[in-house]
Automatic annotation (TrEMBL):
Spans traversing the lipid bilayer: none
Species annotation: Sphingomonas paeninsulae
Cofactor(s), names only, from the UniProt record: Mg(2+)
Enzyme class: isomerase
Subunit structure: Homodimer.
Keywords linked to the UniProt accession: Cytoplasm, Hydrolase, Isomerase, Magnesium, Metal-binding, Plasmid
Residues binding alpha-D-mannose 1-phosphate: R124, S175, D177
Alphabetized Pfam families for the sequence: PMM
Active site, renumbered: D8, D10
Name of the protein: phosphomannomutase
InterPro entries: HAD-like_sf, HAD-SF_hydro_IIB, HAD_sf, PMM, PMM_cap
Main location, first listed in the record: cytoplasm
Length: 247
């Protein structure tokens, strides 16, 4: 029996950079009554506050919720308020090296020429993320920009030899996530198992980027049970089925 259900955020629980919808939020609250629940995202803590925390119903059991921003390199728990349990941060030398590599490859591939809604490069302490159209781009523009992943796969291929000590992964609908090697969502799941006391075989992960190169794929590679979903609607169906099985 599964005792902990973990989710990706963008593309799984919510549309990219959008708030979780009321129906999905209600299902998540319902699930906290029968299981521990975790959310792991490439986004940083402010994104969790905007997309998730403020949208959960009052009957959500927050004590049974684990939040892991920046691909699992940070962990937050609720104890009368949301507290940070750990954070794995880049050194200044690592930060500068990644930003230099990103700036050069983005320029070489002409990816800085498109219209931008907000900053394209975001430093998240333990992760640096490139967003092709900026952090505040409208959903329709993001979905159209790189629907076949071609732009980001070219950027990923160019970055990997420049950053051999780091992991470079495709995430979200317009993003590339860069972390230290070994620091990914599988790492976050392992830390989650330790923090929750739940064995790995009693956990399951649900995400939309479980394909090779996707930022959810390391969870599958590490041997955790996973369920791949196409979109938020499928996540709702899966969540409802899990809640019924665990009731």
């Amino acid at each position: 029996m599964k005792r902990l259900v973990a989710y990706d955020l963008d593309g799984t629980l919510a549309e990219s950079k959008q708030p979780i919808d009321p129906e999905t939020a209600a299902l998540l609250a319902r699930l906290t009554k029968v299981a521990l629940v975790a959310v792991i995202s490439g986004g940083d803590w402010p994104q969790f506050e905007e997309q998730l925390i403020g949208k959960l119903p009052d009957d959500t059991d927050l004590d049974r919720l684990f939040l892991l921003p920046a691909s699992g390199t940070k962990l937050y728990r609720f104890r009368a308020r949301w507290d940070q349990v750990y954070a794995e941060l880049f050194s200044e030398e690592e930060r500068k090296r990644i930003l230099k590599a990103l700036a050069s490859t983005v320029a070489e591939q002409g990816l800085g020429a498109a219209r931008s809604w907000g900053d394209r490069i975001e430093y998240r302490g333990s992760q640096i993320t490139f967003s092709g159209l900026g952090q505040r781009a409208p959903l329709d523009a993001k979905q159209a920009w790189d629907a076949d992943f071609a732009k980001r796969k070219r950027l990923q291929a160019a970055l990997i030899p420049l950053l051999p000590d780091f992991a470079v992964r495709v995430g979200g609908s317009t993003s590339i996530d860069i972390t230290r090697k070994g620091i990914d969502k599988a790492y976050g799941m392992a830390k989650l198992a330790k923090a929750s006391g739940i064995p790995a075989d009693e956990m399951i992960f649900i995400g939309d980027a479980l394909y090779p190169g996707g930022n959810d794929y390391p969870v599958h590679e590490a041997g955790f049970d996973t369920i791949g979903v196409r979109d938020v609607a499928e996540t709702r169906r899966v969540t409802e089925a899990i809640a019924l099985c665990l009731k």
